[in-house]
User: Fold these one by one.
Assistant:
Number 1:
Amino acid sequence: MVKENPTRDKLLTYMAVAALLIFLWYAESHFSQYSLRIINNIGIFIVLAVSYNLINGIAGQFSLGTNAFLAVGAYTSAIFTLSPEEKIRSFIIEPMIWPLSEISLSFPLSLLLAGVVTALIALLVALPVFRVRGDYLAIVTLGFGEVVQVVANNVVSVTNGPLGIKGLAPHTNIWWSWGICIFTVYCVVRLINSSYGRAMKAVREDETAAEAMGINAFRIKTLAFTCSAFFQGVAGGLLAHLITTISPSLFTFMLTFNLLIIIVIGGLGSTTGAVLSAILITWGSEALRIVEEPFTFFGYDYSGIPGMRMVLFSIILILVMLFARRGIMGRNEFKWSVLLNRFGRQSKSEARTS
Amino acid sequence: MSGNLLRIESLVVQFGGVCAVNGLNLEIENSEIIGLIGPNGAGKTTAFNVITGMVKPTTGKVYFLNNEITGKTAPFIARSGIARTFQNIRLYDDLTVIENVMVAAHSSVSYSFPEAILGIGRFGRDERRIRIKSMELLEMMGLERLASEKADSLPYGSQRKLEIARALALEPKLLLLDEPVAGMNPAETSDFAEFILKLRDNMTIGIGLIEHDMSFVMNVCDRMKVIDHGVEIAWGDPQHIRNNQRVIKAYLGEG
């Protein structure tokens, strides 16, 4: 039996991160553009899933506002990285309003700003919503997603309306997306293992009992929501500079829905599950493209049905709900001791059989 | 003036047309164990809910350490030193036993949110302090070997003990126990009575308890208050209550 050992576990974690960085370095020079794009997407989706899990899984508050926060983050960072000349060129319906039209910031600064602006907007949503108990958050955030889209479509002098913002510099590479991914996971894991994280879980488990133990549920919920929105805003900035073109129609409710699938399949409340599931689903939705393309199967010509991937995902979700209601990880987290024990047991049984 | 720890003055709580508590007065002194007894629906738990800020009283005032706390929020009251347990155990089921206790120490945490996220500054030292303190409380309740189990996997009696350990992690000056020995067998009950008395003597805290187990209440309480339909019908030491005709009538009906 291998026990938990903080020093060894820390060392193993550093080694794992180093291995990941070596893999990324190798991938950057050897993989195709297409594969690199998927790796970038995975990094961004891990950020989204882990932060979404913070509010939905850890604090237990059902939010449906990720697409809105992603949009706010994407627009904020896009507006601040475009150069003044580019702004004149692409804002053809109405010129961009003054201070914004002149400001141009570096990419990292724009990401930080994206996070901060998104967090502030989340705070404005949280203040009235968390004053009351119950499922109001879901309703309000769902509506907020629509509001953000309407604003993006109509406040033309800031967002360029339905035309969206085009020609963003492709700043996001695997170092940015995975650097921020590692930073996010680090922060969220620390948060969960702190007193603030325990307070969030206590609120999720029993709000009345949490308040009876001196926890201000309103503050803790607002904290979780704002913190989650910060990371989602940053992810929005990353996404904008990965796909280089953003428009209001990009940030539909489907995005939130996909993330919901990811965290439910991973195990609501498990950060490890959110990471695993983000990798699996993001990679899987690319790998499953074959079912939408024509192919021949034992002499039967399959013509390919667009949207078939979504059908398959729905089936997977239904199967998860039926047979593994708590997802891949349940609410458990990854521990080195558990992994080492599993390996140890396997090698022991192999030794016995040989 | 009496009631230096807790003082309730003519408390009235109405839910719609139902008057759950009607003009209740109650005083608790330091290091005193007060029993609140009465038939089902007498308004005992409602009184606890008002003291801990979970229910707003219709009229009446609550003073704690001679400061008025009427209508203050539950977390505020908990932080100022009133801890409670619940009649139907309310633990954080999916958290481990030690985490349940550590949650209650949240108000004593000195590190800030950024320090927590980055794991710097006061974070490490403070986390260790909370963990050690929580472990001590678990040892006191005899739960130290279950520290890393999920709270809902504990047997009933241990869950009750865990709730008390959690309440004590708040370092309260007043502890309110809502039916602490419900579901315990006689041996466990007498152990628990001993524990309560020891707790009062070692930690010098006031204890208010609601209980139906008469022999237990008579054993541990210094004074007790009997209420029925929200109205006080008797007040005094156990000997006095035992022989009170109105109490006998409330419990057994008219003969």
Number 2:
Amino acid sequence: MNIIELKNVSKSFKNEQVLKDINLTMESGKIYGIIGKNGAGKTVLFKIISGLVRPTSGSIVVEGKRIGIDVDFPESLGMIIETPGFLGEYNAFDNLHYLAKIKNIISDDEIRKAIEIVGLDAKSKKKVGKFSLGMRQRLGIAQAIMENPDLIILDEPMNGLDKNGIKDVKRILLELKNQGKTIIMASHYAEDTEICDMVYEMDGGELIIRDLEQSAM
Amino acid sequence: MKKKTIIFEVIIIFLFSVFMIIWNVGCKNIVCNIYGGVEYNYGDINVLAMGKWLFVFAMYFLITGYEMLNNQRMFLFEIYRYKNYKTWWRNYFFNTQFSIFLIYIFSALELVIIEQRDGISLMNDLLIIVFFYMHLQMYISILICSGVLFKNSICPGVLVVFEGLLYVFSVSDNNLIGISGMYIRLKDIDNTVYSGIGIGIIEAVISIVLFLAVKSLISNEKCERLVL
């Protein structure tokens, strides 16, 4: 079943075209990787799929609903875009609790479970302001998965992580895939996408399918 | 609402109140001196009193700005959890207004309570803080709306200048728009309560209109600048 369909999506800022006629279909229960340099258009593509940015032309359908027409945001979404900006004076649990109150569909125990899954201590009183970039990244992933969404968008989830951290994140993503979740992740590096079922490369706002064997190299 | 942020802001307001008490040492009615407005000065501008009046507004604008900045830090994590942009806007607007209201009430009532020891009329003090708040909440609405709609948030400074101009235009006569929020000047008019409440209701209506206007305008196109 297709979870995401992008048809002829383009985006321009003033005179600069950052996405050029993107056509993309993604099936549920798979991991998709998008690699590309800084400024290739990965983050803008993610923001368009999640309803945060409106395309200049084209249409986006997520789980059968047109983004910006039927719904403003995909209904079952978890995402981390750019460097996670949490409230520095709060600990990990309080930050996630604050976000979880918006939808109010999960319990405190489920929040703690999400924190533990990413390898952080849910009972720790350490303020997020004192977290390393890697710890913030882990917490960002925890906030993305805590409400058990069907679609998970991760913009450079391996950013700031050490070898063990990257290994942990890959394991978590594979577990989520086995639960039927669809994951789209972006990275600068091809080696981060070895767990992906399909890898695309973005360059100058254009999207091309990349050979999986080529990606693994 | 972020509990720790509120505690931090209450501490700031407490320190601000202590500063204002010290600044107003020797005056009969501190609440009136801080929140009551600028007294009629026979057609002349009272620069010091005007500065004090604008300083109080600037303080609350600063706290509102801090609140808005905190909200922006979490924006990318928060926004997609709402059903749509309109729901986010409603929560954002009312949460910010409510949190400023709480801070205001804490800071003003603290002074009212202190003053009761000196036998100052409680009713007068309450009217002063109600009239001031009605004026303040309109400015807070303008700040919140401009923060979402416009890229360069020069609004707090513009509002302080605007409030200063309102005073300047009402130096020689008690026109209701110029003296809105100023109990000292409103009491010079017959039926103070009716005049004050009347202008307060107009300001509340302005807030409601602003809220509804932004609600109808808000979309991912308008919010795009918050995420880029």
